[in-house]
Each structure stands twice: as C-alpha cells, then as structure tokens.
C-alpha cells in the first residue's frame, strides 16, 4: 500500500517533469526494440500443463529420464508458492505465456543460412561482425526457444573444447550431460528454477578439458522476438582441472505492451584450480521479467568470477552464487544494476563458504534514476568448518534524482569463529556541485550526468573486455538520455 | 575584442524552497578583453557570489540587473551555454569526480567548449606542455578529477583548464587561498600566460594583496556588503595592504 502511494508520487513527479519538458517524451530510447515478423510466435500455444511439457520433450526426442525430470520439476513449480520478497511478481500471468516457440528448422552453421529477418536482427546487434573480427572464439545465438546459429573456432574443437547448445549436448554428450545436469541447482531449488527445469530449451553447454585455456571469450546472444514469450534457456559449464574459459552473454527483446518472461538456469562446475569468468550484459526491453538462477560449485583452488550487468528488463531478480566446496576456492562477483523509469533491479550475489581457506568478494554498484528502484541483496554464508575464510562486500548506490530509490539488504550468516569479514555500503547522490563543475567546463547537463555515472561504474567497467566496456558505457549513455528534468 | 558588462546586479542566495537572502545589491562592472580587474573585500562581502552568479550557479537567483557578454544577456543561459560562450570560473573549492580521469575530463571539456574534438597529436602535446609549465606531475593525467589532490594541486589544475580551454574571460574565485609562495607564483604565471596568449580578460577575486605581486591588475575594486564601495588603479591595492578594509566597513 505504501509502495503504491510511493509509485504514484513518483509518476506524478515524472509527469510534471515531462509536462515542463515535452521534448523529453520518448526519452532514453531503447535501441533494440524492433520486432521481426512472427509466424512461429503467433501460432504458439499459451499456458503450462503436463501436456505442454511432454510436447516440448517429444519435439526434442529426449530420453525418458529427461522427460521424467521435467515432469517432476513441473510438480515442484505447481506446489511452490510465488516468492513474496524482492520484487512485485503478482502481474506475471503464467497462463498467458508461450512456453515454446520454434522459429527455424534446424541450426544454421552460417549466418546466410538463417531466415532473412532473423539474420538481419543479429546483424543489427553486431554479432556476426564480432565473430568476423575474431573478438570471440565461438558464438551461440538463441532466438526464442532455440539456438539458431552456432559456431566455434576449429582449433578449440580440436583441443576437445565442447561448445554447443544445450539440446545438442543432451543428444551428443549425454553421459557427461547427465552427470552434471541439475547437480548444482537441484530441480526444486526455487519456483523459477523448477519452472526452467520443466520447460527448458536452448542455452549453452560448455566443456573445457583439463589444462585448456580458451584465450578469447565464447559468446552467446539471446533474443526474444514474440510477445508474451517465455524464454527458458539452460546453461551448463564444466571447466575441468586447471582450465580457463570466459563466457559472455547478451540479451535483448522488442518493446511490447504486455510482458514476457525470461527465466534461465545457469549451472557451472569449476574443477580443481580451474577458472571461469561469466559476463552478462543484460539489456532486455522494459516489458521482460528476468528471473534467473545462477550458481557455481567451485572446487579446490578454483576461481569463479561473475560479472553481472543489468541495464534492461522490467524486473530482475538475480543473485549469482558461488559455493566454495574445496579449500582455497575463490568466488568473486562484480555487479552493476541500472534502474530507470518503471524498472526494479533486485540483484546482488550469494557466497557460500563450505571449505576452509576460501575467499569471496562482492562489489556492487547500482544506479537509480527517473523513479527506478535498485536494490543490492546479498548473502555471505560461512558454514561450520570453513575456518580461515575471508569475505569482503562493497556496495555503492548512486541516486541521480530525488524520485528514485535504492535499498541494501546484506545478509551474513557465520557459523565459524576464525573468519575475516568486511562490509561497506554507501549511498550517494549526484551533487549539484559536481554538475555545476562539469557544466562550467562546457558539458551539457546530460553529458555531465553521464560522465558522473560512468565514473561511478568505472571500477567494474575496467574489468570488462574493451568492447564490452564500451558497450556498457554506450548503454549507460542511452539510459541517461533525457535524465534531466 | 569582447566585453563583459555587469549592470545594477541584484542577487539572492536560495536557502531552501521558501527562503532566500539578498547578497548582491547593485553591482556595476565592465571588463574588456585583455584587462585585469581585481575585486577585493572582506569575507562575506559577496565577492564569491558575484563569481558564481556570472557562471550561473543554481544556488543564486538574479533578482534584477543584467550580465552582458558582448551585449548578450547571459542570465537566461544555462551554465554550459555560458561556458561555451567563453566564461570560465576557476573554482574556490573544485569538487572530486570519482572514476573520471583528468585526461578524459580535459578532453571532454575541450571538445564541449570548441564544439569539436581536438586533434589528438597537438592536444596531447598541449596538455603535456601546460602541465609542465604548471609543474604538475605527468602522472596526474591518469588520476581521477581532484580525487586526493591537495589544495594546491586542485588550484593548479584549475589554471591548467584555464590555459587549455582558452576562454574570453577568466574569473578566479580566491584562487590564491591556501597556496604557499611557490605555488602562488606558479599559478599566477599560468594566469598571466593565459592573459597574454589569448588576450583574456581577468576578474581576480581575493581578499589578500599577496597575489597582486604576481598578477598586476589595471583596475582594483573594493567590495563591501554586496556592492562596490571604491575603485582605482594598482595604488588602491597598496593602500588596502596597509589600511585593510576598516575604513570602508560601516560607511
């Protein structure tokens, strides 16, 4: 009730701003909001029941065990109540969502083999260009429910690196797939992980053999095209002993009046002394609910790094986790969230220290503007026996105006005496003096604001590969357009 | 040749949504390109308010009067428009901008003021030279704007910007405060260079005469309680050095 009042108050202020500055209408334009023609999507069924799950499984010719797992997950999903914490999910209409949309028959090995409008979409997103320029070592492009394009550099394949879509992995590498699938995030972990397990389709499967270093990133690109689409990709990454891989994902969708749902599950196993970096630049349009479960099991001496950028979506709830199960395992999360008008980003991280001498670090930066709401939510848990563990949490929030909101929910649960913990949190506002200073040097108010925000996220941006740092800066600039009221 | 004219300027400081307080009570001043004017006066006389008002600080409201740059009233212009029109304010308390390097900041400012990006090669050379003359360690170019700078380092960087951005008029708001003798000399030389090389008009705001040993004003104005109470040539500064402002207070 108070929240409703608050939202109305925000809307009033924003509409006042827009009345006084009509040129700001249509501000912060979302660049990726086009939609392709949509025959596959139009004919797709809405709603979820056992038949839908059986249908997905049979279309994919899956083995019996997978179907059984899906059906079990569906029961979990039906039984589990909606989470009541975090964000407002009450408007999600599970009966209105399309759970499976097949847009191409079979997967293309060249961009030319894709239907023209899908190919154009990826061209506009710059994906084939990145591949041509060898900025990535492998590309997966998922359109609606399935991966429509896939390619990996030959030399990596020769070294035994597997990078395929998850459906193909189940067909071609069933043994290793079955060994790990659902072991990091169990079927009934939470309502949305259960939903994903019931209806999952697409996603990436990566296996990096012992000692192999994949020197440039593997990239996946997720695109939702149809309205009321549910995208449920499932990603599984196994980095064998002493290996290294960097996986990058990006996501966009068209702007529609009604909402879509993206609910992914990402499971990662980091074996002894291996290292995985997982970078997300999430830029869904503002009608997508983004409810994602990401978790890593990190073994002895292993390192897991989450770089999690959330710029788009209507609502995001995502807390990438690292379970440090081996001695000297390390977990790191760098998180950036940007909440503009109508957006609620509830993000953070979860670090679970299970073995001794494990260390974790969380750095979170959130920016709220134009009535947006950004929250840091994090858990650091040190279980009994995880002595000599270290953890550090730094979360900084920046408010660009007086109508936006920032919250911090740090949870700490320590069951061991000999541990080192640090926590710092700051909330700051863009000051009048900073704006005055930059504008006195000739920058417009928008440019000045964008410069301050870019500076604020710089500690995370510098961790990104250069072209992604540029992309992040560009997205921030787009978000900041019309930020001046 | 440019002219900055201030005519019967009345200004209030905005305290909160409802309250404001009059500070400037009818200021008149004309500065031409190439001239150096010093405004001197005791603390709280409104000198800094005049500087901030010319630059358009949102804390101050013009109640009446005009600020004309080459005949055009700037009071209707935004802060950045005034900056691009050629008005530069060297701040008394330059603020920190975390995460933004000096290099990025200087280039962005230059691009904004000139309306186009400077040519990369000459720009790097210009910055290096200007930093050298102001005895700024080259490492500062990679540091964040004003972050962890000492008072003296901040002031040098203000003058660095003044030299690189080449405004028509430079307003120095107590640039001399908090500087030791060596730094004062270096900063003053920077102002003199900008004045000579670019025919810049200077409005020097100070309450000490110390800086006037290095920067020689042709016009000295005495400012008390929101308006000019006296003006003259360099000899007026000498008199103030001896007598202070006592004779003006309560006039």
From TrEMBL, chain A:
Domain spans labelled SUF system FeS cluster assembly SufBD N-terminal: 156-219
Gene Ontology BP term (one): iron-sulfur cluster assembly
Database matches in InterPro entries: Fe-S_cluster_assembly_SufBD, SUF_FeS_clus_asmbl_SufB, SUF_FeS_clus_asmbl_SufBD_core, SUF_FeS_clus_asmbl_SufBD_sf, SufBD_N
Record-annotated SUF system FeS cluster assembly SufBD core domain positions: 222-456
PANTHER family, per the entry: FES CLUSTER ASSEMBLY PROTEIN SUF (PTHR30508), UPF0051 PROTEIN ABCI8, CHLOROPLASTIC-RELATED (PTHR30508:SF1)
Family: Belongs to the iron-sulfur cluster assembly SufBD family.
Protein known as: Fe-S cluster assembly protein SufB
Organism: Rothia amarae
TrEMBL record, chain B:
UniProt KW keywords: ATP-binding, Nucleotide-binding
Identification of the protein by name: Fe-S cluster assembly ATPase SufC
SUPFAM superfamilies noted in UniProt: P-loop containing nucleoside triphosphate hydrolases (SSF52540)
Presence of the UniProt keyword Nucleotide-binding in the record: yes
One example GO MF annotation: ATP binding
InterPro entries documented for this protein: AAA+_ATPase (IPR003593), ABC_transporter-like_ATP-bd (IPR003439), FeS-cluster_ATPase_SufC (IPR010230), P-loop_NTPase (IPR027417)
Taxonomic placement: Bacteria, Bacillati, Actinomycetota, Actinomycetes, Micrococcales
Gene that this sequence comes from: sufC
Domain ABC transporter: 4-250
Residue runs in coiled coils: none
Similarity remark: Belongs to the ABC transporter superfamily. Ycf16 family.
């Amino acid at each position: 009730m108070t929240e409703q009042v608050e939202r109305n108050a925000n809307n009033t202020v924003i509409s006042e701003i827009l009345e006084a500055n009509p040129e700001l209408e249509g501000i912060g334009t979302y660049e990726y909001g086009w939609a392709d023609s949509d025959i596959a999507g139009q004919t797709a069924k809405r709603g979820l029941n056992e038949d839908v799950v059986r249908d997905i499984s049979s279309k994919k010719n899956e083995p019996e065990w997978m179907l059984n797992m899906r059906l079990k997950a569906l029961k979990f999903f039906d039984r589990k109540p909606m989470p009541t914490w975090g964000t407002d999910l009450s408007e999600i209409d599970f009966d209105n969502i399309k759970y499976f949309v097949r847009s191409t028959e079979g997967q293309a090995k060249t961009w030319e083999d894709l239907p023209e409008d899908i190919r154009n979409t990826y061209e506009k997103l710059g994906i084939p260009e990145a591949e041509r320029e060898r900025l990535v070592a492998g590309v997966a492009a998922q359109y609606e429910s399935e991966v429509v394009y896939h390619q990996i550099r030959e030399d990596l394949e020769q070294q035994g690196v597997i990078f395929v879509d998850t459906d193909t992995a189940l067909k071609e590498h069933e043994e290793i797939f079955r060994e790990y699938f659902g072991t990091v995030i169990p079927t009934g972990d939470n309502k949305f992980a259960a939903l994903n397990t019931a209806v999952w389709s697409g996603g990436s499967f990566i296996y990096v053999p012992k000692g192999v270093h994949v020197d440039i990133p593997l990239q996946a690109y997720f695109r939702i095209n149809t309205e009321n689409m549910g995208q449920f990709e499932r990603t599984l990454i196994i980095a064998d002993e002493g290996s290294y891989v960097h996986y990058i994902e990006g996501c966009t969708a068209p702007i529609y009046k009604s909402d879509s749902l993206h609910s992914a599950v990402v499971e990662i196993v980091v074996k002894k002394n291996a290292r995985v970096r997982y970078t997300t630049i999430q830029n869904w349009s503002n009608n997508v609910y983004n409810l994602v479960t990401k978790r890593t099991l990190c073994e002895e001496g292993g390192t897991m790094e989450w770089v999690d950028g959330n710029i788009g979506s209507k609502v995001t709830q995502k807390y990438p986790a690292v379970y440090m199960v081996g001695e000297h395992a390390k977990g790191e999360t760098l998180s950036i969230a940007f909440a503009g008008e109508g957006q609620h980003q509830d993000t953070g991280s979860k670090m679970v220290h299970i073995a001794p001498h494990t260390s974790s670090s969380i750095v979170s930066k959130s920016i709220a503007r134009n009535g947006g709401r950004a929250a840091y939510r994090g858990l650091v848990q040190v279980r009994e026996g995880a002595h000599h563990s270290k953890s550090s949490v730094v979360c900084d929030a920046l408010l660009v105006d007086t109508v936006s909101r920032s919250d911090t929910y740090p949870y700490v649960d320590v069951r061991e005496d000999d541990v080192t913990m640090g926590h710092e949190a700051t909330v700051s506002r863009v000051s009048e003096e900073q704006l005055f200073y930059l504008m006195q040097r000739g920058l417009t108010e928008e440019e000045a604001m964008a410069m301050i925000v870019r500076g604020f996220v710089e500690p995370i941006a510098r961790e990104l590969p250069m072209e992604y740092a540029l992309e992040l800066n560009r997205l921030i600039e787009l978000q900041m357009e019309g930020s001046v009221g | 040749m440019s002219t900055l004219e201030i005519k019967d300027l009345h200004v209030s400081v905005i305290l909160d949504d409802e309250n404001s307080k009059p500070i400037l009570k009818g200021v008149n001043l004309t500065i031409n390109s190439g001239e150096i004017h010093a405004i001197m006066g005791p603390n709280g006389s409104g000198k800094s308010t005049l500087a901030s008002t010319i630059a358009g600080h949102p804390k101050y409201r013009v109640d009446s009067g005009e600020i004309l740059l080459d005949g055009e009233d700037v009071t209707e212009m935004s802060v950045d428009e005034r900056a691009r029109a050629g008005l530069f304010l060297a701040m008394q308390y330059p603020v920190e901008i975390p995460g933004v390097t000096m290099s990025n900041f200087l280039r962005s400012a230059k691009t904004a003021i000139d309306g186009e990006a400077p040519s990369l090669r000459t720009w790097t050379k210009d910055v290096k030279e200007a930093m050298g003359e102001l005895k700024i360690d080259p490492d500062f170019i990679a540091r964040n704007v004003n972050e962890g700078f000492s008072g003296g380092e901040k002031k040098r960087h203000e003058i660095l910007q003044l030299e690189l951005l080449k405004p028509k008029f430079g307003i120095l708001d107590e640039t001399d405060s908090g500087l030791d003798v060596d730094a004062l000399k270096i900063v003053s030389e920077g102002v003199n260079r900008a004045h000579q090389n670019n025919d810049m008009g200077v409005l020097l705001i100070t309450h000490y005469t110390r800086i006037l040993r290095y920067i020689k004003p042709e016009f000295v104005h005495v400012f008390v309680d929101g308006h000019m109470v006296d003006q003259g040539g360099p000899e007026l500064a000498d008199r103030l050095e001896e007598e202070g402002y006592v004779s003006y207070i309560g006039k």
